[in-house]
Hints:
Blueprint: H1 3-15, H2 18-25, H3 29-43, E1 48-50, E2 55-57, H4 59-82, E3 91-97, H5 99-106, H6 110-116, E4 120-126, E5 140-146, E6 153-159, E7 162-166, H7 168-174, E8 189-191, E9 196-198, E10 204-206, E11 211-213, H8 216-224, E12 230-233, H9 234-243, E13 247-249, E14 259-265, H10 273-286
Parallel strand pairs: 3-4, 3-5, 8-11
Antiparallel strand pairs: 1-2, 5-14, 6-14, 7-12, 7-13, 9-10
Helix pairs in contact: 1-2, 1-3, 1-4, 2-3
Amino acid sequence: MDILSFRLFLRIAALGGVTAAAQDLGLSSASASARLVKLEETIGVRLFNRTTRAVSLTTDGEAFLPYAQEMIETLETGLSAVKGQGAAAEGILKITMPGSFGRMYIIPTLAEFHARHPRVSLDLRLSDAVLDVVEGAYDLIIRNAPLVDSSLIVRKLASDRRILVASPTYLEQYGAPTTPDDLAEHQCVCLGEASKWTFENGQTVSVPRSFVINDGEALRTMLEQGLGIGVKSLWNASESLKAGRLVEVMPEFPFTTHAAIWLLYPSRRIMAPKVHAMIDFLIEQFHPVPPWEC
């Protein structure tokens, strides 16, 4: 099992053919085919489905692909280090992030990232589910949640301050609560089962679940339409607050939150340049002040 065979495997996967990959690496088609067969024999699985017209990754080949990519990237990083050179950021960077946060604050920055690092290809997954970094072979996870014990390396990207908000229309019709106890007399829009709201003064109130929804952006829309009072992340509600579609309720009673925006990545001793480049880029975008607080 040699490095050239791994490079060949990656190029076949990228180009979709043995001949094209062989030409790209300066090999003959016969030599490339022989190397691929030997690699599959050594690993003990078939990596590609082959037809007369094309090749495609098998299930085992898809599972093996991110590990081969990581091995090559780690080797190139090490070689650059001993040569006193900075390795270029390149390759496929697989990232998962929450849907709303990704659409609002990550996706709009990617053109700038691509301009700086044109050899990095992005494979993005927008999902509010807590996805496994190892099982999904992710290079980087952006997570909006309380921090739990993890074998991953963690960097805080930004705070996630939660506030109570309502529309001016709702407050004109029903009045504004002045204490947490007043919420019992109001319509409240809850995200899922989160009907117990805790404040920094230690008080917890069970609010009436006048409306329940499982999507944060839809919840914001319902609040803007005057359906009640709800809890929103400042990052999610900031544009609505600036536009006057929402106003903060009871700012003198701050809402308790244990969540933040985190960057998580595998605890490898050597970080691939592409991951390092994205982490540095995101830190630059959100520090010292995140865009929703500007």
